[in-house]
Amino acid sequence: MNPVLAQRYLKGLRAHLRLNGRGNGDGAQGLGRAALAAGMAPVDLAVMHEKALAAIAVSQDFSKNRAEWFKRKAYFFTQALIPLEAAQEAARRSHSNLQQRNSTLRLHTLALASANRRLQSEVVRRKAGEQQIRKGKEHYRTLFLESQAMQKKLRKLTHQIISAQEDERKEISRELHDEVVQTLVGINVELAGLGRGAAVGVRTLKAKIAHTQKLVENSVNAVHQFARELRPAVLDDLGLIPALVAYSKSLAARKRLKIQMTAFGGVEALGAVKRTVLFRVAQEALTNVARHAHATVVKLSISEVAGAVRMEISDNGKSFHVRNTLLAKNNKRLGLVGMRERIEMVGGSLAIESAPGTGTTVRAEIPFTESKA
Ligand SMILES: Nc1ncnc2c1ncn2[C@@H]1O[C@H](COP(=O)(O)OP(=O)(O)OP(=O)(O)O)[C@@H](O)[C@H]1O
Ligand SMILES: [Mg+2]
User: Which of 7, 88, 263, 361 could form a disulfide with 302 if both were Cys (CB 3.0 to 4.6 A apart)?
Assistant: First the structure.
């Protein structure tokens, strides 16, 4: 117990008891406030009050005004108690306030917890979804890679077929020239001898022999023409430009088409495979013009562009829808597709432009040096 305060209390109480009904208890409330400030509880105040009373009672004469004395000391104590009671009441109130807030907080916490649970299950659901998407992506990527690998294989196979085809053409062409044509020429020589040796008057026989000779001659020309188309020997012997000149001349004569050609001599520096590719592309493009374009003039030009050879075949005929033709389902046409395959096989590129009113242009470019493609 605070001795200074106990002393003050004793003094205050004594003075109050001495005043005999004139004190209003203000001093008691002041002491109560001091007790509160010193951290005392009502029970501590009661103890302090009892001790003060005991000290006063020693010298007190109880013979008169005993009842009054008891009333006054009780009054003093009640007054001193007021600040402590008030403080306790305030504490009680703030405690209940706190409790109320606490329960509100608890409700909030519960609501938060359930929202959290919902969020967590949403996160789990999303994660599963993401996983699914990732798996799908991986699946498509695998499919894409597989299809790329298959395309590569297919391309390789096509290239092999084209190369084999070229070799076979070369062989057939040589056989036609060397074997079939020679045999036909031999037959013709025989027929001529027979014609000369036939007895005069056997007119019919002579006429028949002459007719057969004509037929054989036509066959020789047809076989020559076929052999040239299959694989012009000129291409191997003299080069691309003479082969194209010969081919253009023969096509122009047969199809009544004007073919204008300009060429850059350096093209012969290309390897045999690349020259053959250019010949085949020109052959296909020119055949297409003759077959489909209804053109009157075709321009064939071979020029040099940065590190490459460019060949263009332009006609003034009717145009066609290139994309639709190439992408058409069940496209069994091999001309345009084959052109592209051949060009890409040697690391080049092919473009086909066709527009109403301007006709069609096929543009092929082949690099001089080998590309890794
Ligand atoms: N210069 C052109 N002018 C107009 N149409 C063309 C020309 N070149 C091609 N075409 C059109 O494109 C189509 C496809 O040509 P492609 O060369 O692929 O096939 P094709 O010539 O019909 O048959 P093949 O397989 O014997 O070459 C042709 O059928 C034709 O309709
Ligand atoms: Mg064609």
Answer: 263
